[in-house]
Write a structure and sequence with these properties.
about 35% helix, Aminopeptidase, elongated, five-stranded mixed sheet, about 450 residues, Leucine Aminopeptidase, subunit E, domain 1
Length: about 450
């Protein structure tokens, strides 16, 4: 079921949000029985705490969740979601306004996420009535987009290969009345998408380019997502420790499909295109080799110095195709480099943009949506690092320095006619956190969705 708020009801349980420094004042407003009960249970207002006060029939008459301190709130996101799973079964309504109301309401919905395709999971039993002052349908659509992203990433490659990713895109297109075309296998060569074909040709599930279009008026936005459904590293085989999470290497594709769902479900007035090169980077007799030189769709030649730097190759052809249409904005999203994780860790979404207006809109939206991003530089002096001499470009510069930056510079070479931004995301939550269980996660998509209005003047 898609995430949804609980129906409004007079029986909804009042939910108080209590900060640690407000606990004494709040307790003074409660009945003596409630004060005794709350004190006996050790409720202090710390983040993640919850308490329910029963009525004479044992049903919760009111409940409270801790809002911590200003310092503790800075160190966490989705504060109400930290306590939601601990509340008794029932529907709850906020008893007072809270800061960041939209984000907190979204966090509550996402706290109910469970990946239950292979094993039954315990559902969230505490529902939240949509608070006054929010657009409930919009928040439910954002949550549904995030759930789609998580489900796609969490599904193992045995059930999420290129054909399955195509099916997910087709299902999304059908749901929203979008058009979709898919170029598969050797037809990629006929359609001048040679690097997508080269990277995916060794797998027993054919490579493909998924092309979804929606909307007939407004600015043109093209999203390009890396859809490497499993990455062995190719002939430069990954060690076991590095291969363990490679089902998530299609996290960029999952992210753009989730963002597309948000856009279409809320009817933003724009012309949307989603391009996903869907491949597996496998090992076989016809796998591409180190020091091969590939000719891209754009005509640029690429020397292969590591077959494990394949994501930028498939993205390059898709970006060149996107650029030919000259949209107002191209955005690529990819689980592209380990260097980005070393630089900023798993929680921040690094991004690249030379457009100050894009940066301003995104940074403002990211703060409001509790979806943190971090600007990285398209550092022009590093261009020489991706120029090997024997070909126009090097897919894996030696030396190990600035790996995320050089990958972004590589991709930028394929966009010359359009505004361009690139996200080098992780797509994975390594430990449980409020509203973000361990597993696949969207990064940057909610910030992007919120930024599209001011950015594209919608």
């Amino acid at each position: 079921m898609p995430p949804a708020f609980a129906p409004a009801s007079e029986d909804a349980i009042p939910l108080h949000v209590v900060a640690e420094d407000r606990l004494a004042d709040w307790l003074a407003e409660q009945s003596e029985t409630a004060r005794s009960w709350i004190t006996a249970l050790g409720f202090t207002g710390a983040l993640g705490q919850s308490v329910a006060v029963p009525d004479a029939n044992g049903r919760p008459a009111l409940a409270a969740v801790g809002h911590g301190t200003a310092a503790s709130r800075k160190r966490a996101r989705f504060h109400l979601a930290a306590a939601a799973p601990k509340l008794p079964k029932g529907s709850y309504r906020l008893a007072q306004p809270v800061d960041g109301l939209e984000s907190e309401a979204l966090g509550w919905l996402l706290a109910g996420y469970r990946f239950d395709r292979y094993r039954k999971q315990t559902p969230l039993v505490a529902g939240l009535v949509a608070p006054d002052g929010i657009d409930a349908a919009r928040i439910e659509a954002i949550a549904a987009g995030e759930v789609l992203t998580r489900d796609l990433i969490n599904t193992p490659a045995s059930d999420m290969g290129p054909p399955d990713l195509e099916k997910a895109a087709r299902d999304l297109a059908k749901e929203h009345g979008a058009a979709i075309e898919v170029i598969t296998g050797d037809a990629l060569l006929d359609q001048n998408l040679p690097m997508i074909h080269t990277v995916g040709r060794a797998a027993n599930r054919a490579p493909r380019l998924i092309d979804l279009r929606w909307g007939d008026s407004g600015p043109k936005l093209t999203l390009v997502g890396k859809g490497v459904c499993f990455d062995t590293g190719g002939l430069n085989l990954k060690p076991a420790a590095s291969m363990g999470l490679m089902k998530k290497d299609m996290g960029g594709a999952a992210a753009v499909l989730g963002l597309a769902n948000m856009i279409m479900a809320t009817g933003l007035k724009l012309r949307l295109r989603v391009l996903i090169p869907a491949v597996e980077n496998a090992v076989s007799g016809n796998a591409f080799r180190p020091q091969d030189i590939l000719i891209s769709r754009k005509g640029l030649t690429v020397e292969i110095n590591n077959t494990d730097a394949e994501g930028r190759l498939v993205l390059a052809d898709a970006l060149a195709l996107a650029d030919e249409d000259k949209p107002d904005q191209i955005i690529s999203m990819a689980t592209l480099t380990g260097a980005a994780r070393v630089a900023v860790g798993p929680d921040l979404a690094p991004y690249y943009s030379d457009d100050d207006a894009f940066v301003a809109a995104l940074e403002k939206a990211a703060a409001a949506q509790a979806d943190p991003v971090w600007r990285m530089p398209f550092h022009d002096p590093y261009e020489a690092m991706i120029e090997p001499g024997i070909a126009d470009l090097d897919n894996a510069p030696k030396g190990g320095f600035a790996g995320s930056i050089t990958a972004a510079l590589f991709l930028r070479r394929f966009v010359t006619e359009s505004a361009y931004a690139h996200f080098d995301i992780y797509g994975w939550q390594p430990t449980d956190a409020p509203a973000r269980p361990k597993g696949g996660v969207g990064q940057g998509t909610r910030a992007l969705y919120a930024a599209l209005g001011p950015l594209l003047k919608l």
